[in-house]
Fold this protein.
Amino acid sequence: MKKILVANRGEIALRVMRSAREMGIATVAVFSEADRHAPFVRYADEAVCIGPAPSSQSYLRGEKIIEVCRQVGADGIHPGYGFLSENASFARQVAEAGIRFIGPSPHSIEVMGSKLAAKAAAKKYGIPMVPGTDGAVSDPEEARRIALEVGLPVLIKASAGGGGKGMRIVERIEELDEQMARAISEAESAFGDGSVFIERYVAGPRHIEIQVLADTHGHTLYLFERECSIQRRHQKVVEEAPSAILTPALREAMGQSACDVARSCDYVGAGTVEFLVDENLNYYFLEMNTRLQVEHPVTEMITGIDLVKEQIRIARGEQLSFTQKDLKINGHALEIRVYAEDPDNQFLPDIGRLETYRRPSGPGVRVDDGFEEGMDIPIYYDPMIAKLITHGKDREEAIQRMVRAIDDYQVSGVRTTLGFCRWAIQHPAFTGGQFDTHFVKKYFTPDVLHQSAEGAEEVAAIAASWAWMHSIIKATTSQPAGATPSRWKANRS
Ligand code: MV4
């Protein structure tokens, strides 16, 4: 592979190109009109505009992207995450055009894209799964029998869903018929596939996922876990590796299960197997994501492995250069997602211009971002500004380092989730490792961001400066210049 086209934008496009460049591989960016001045476009060796801002007219145009590959002579495509990354027919078209798709086969994407097909494949390997139906359910009598057998509450899930889309909880048996009918019609209109299945509802679970790598020579191994329980409406907020609750034995069992899930669909490349873990440390297979994930950096920090380079090596047909025994966990890593969202206003996107944008740095701090000071955050895409990652010798150091890095981050012009993340990682439930997927729902209200000791100090300082300004205004009846407190400070807590 001599030239890779990155079919994505923002931080992940930049992150992929950096690894390609270190391997002596040329890079090609494709970009929309909204991203003309983005860092990833400038960083690439070549860049081609593929259409207007909306994704449907740019980043989702598979045929156009393959045509660009032909024009520039690219022999590989890295899809990043989102957009075309889990589109089996795109992966197939790429292969048919004689270009390497840096990812798994269309078959693997298809199997894992259907939750029912994924469960059927995993079942053959004896992977632990939540009790429930094996296949799609549409008959109300059968649904009733299963619900009573596994025990209420149950969850109705769409086979074509994922990431929480199309899920319905049923607490009482009288609600089952109606919820089934709704789930089926919703799945039909959202995914064009009305297949749903039923599982017992696991209350208060942790969401732990395992990173796997598989080469084309039959080697499959796991790069430990990522704890992703701190999420808000299925959007991850904080990710960490390793998880504070796994024992070495459980880690190994889950790792083996994850490798078996990968084998069950003949997986090749980097993938992630998601599990639920209940309060008794039972684990259950949920789904497999057949792409590089947003939170992959925490795995890179604790293993020292560059996952993008491994993806590229695997796509070139090389053998993995290490074995399971070679892999060790080194220290602890945290990632927070910095979104241009307003925690005071139901996390609505707060798009606008990054008036001030200064990254933290120093020992153990990594920032994966795709913006620069003065840039506008486009309304067309996900409002993630950056991923802030810290690494330390242990969990406590990683957390302290993250607090420091958040405090060193200077952003103004848009509201961000920095203060929200700062609150989350300092919460006693988080520092004590006692949390589940309901953490944000349980503990967060906007006022928690306005009552910290430091916040109180800032309010006092601002009040004092106002009093001082007033005394000047009274004395001189003229406006003082430059006395407005900087907005990044105001945004911080
Ligand atoms: C569940 C569950 C409880 N019991 N399945 C949500 C995303 C999708 N991957 C599966 N999800 C869940 N499946 C059973 N049988 C709870 C969730 C769930 C969840 C899972 C992972 C991370 C966050 C979550 C938030 C709410 C619900």
Summary: The two ends are 47 Å apart (CA to CA).
